[in-house]
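Sequence only, no structure available. Ideas?
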Amino acid sequence: MEFSLLFLLFILNFVWVSESLITFQIVSLSIYIIKKMIKSVFQQLDNMVIELSLSLFTAIVITDASIKNDITTFISHIHISNCPLTRTIHHMVFITSTEAELFAIRCGINQASTKKDISKIIVVTDSIHTAKKIFDPSSHLYQIHVVAILNEIQEFFVNNQNNLIKFWEYSS
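Reply:
I predicted one. Tokens follow.
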């Protein structure tokens, strides 16, 4: 009786260890696949930046926002022809990260579109869901920001209908 009970505990323990190993291997494989996907996205982003940084007619706008202790910090970097044009850093209190991201995008588009001969603006952001709100016609809290951004975009396209604005997402 003692032998069979020990044997049963051994078998149950072996099955548990085997399932843990399988689970661990699946998690490891998932992490490996995710890392490969992220590496691929960063490689595409690197290639795009290298290719576009050679163009005199393309502005790359990179935005980011974060909140810590109710203080929102958002940054907008603009590069034209592989040269940093401007870096804008703002600190605000008691606003949402969505408002901050929209404001950073607005500042970037505004500054890039006012430069002579710019026909293409690439906005790189870690919150593409926020950028999609710009083109969301439904009623939402951020419409005042959206109207301001759309005015900037309209002015950019009035100058030349062949102008182009693209949005790229990166993971922060």
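The longest helix spans residues 2-53.
Hope that gets you unstuck.
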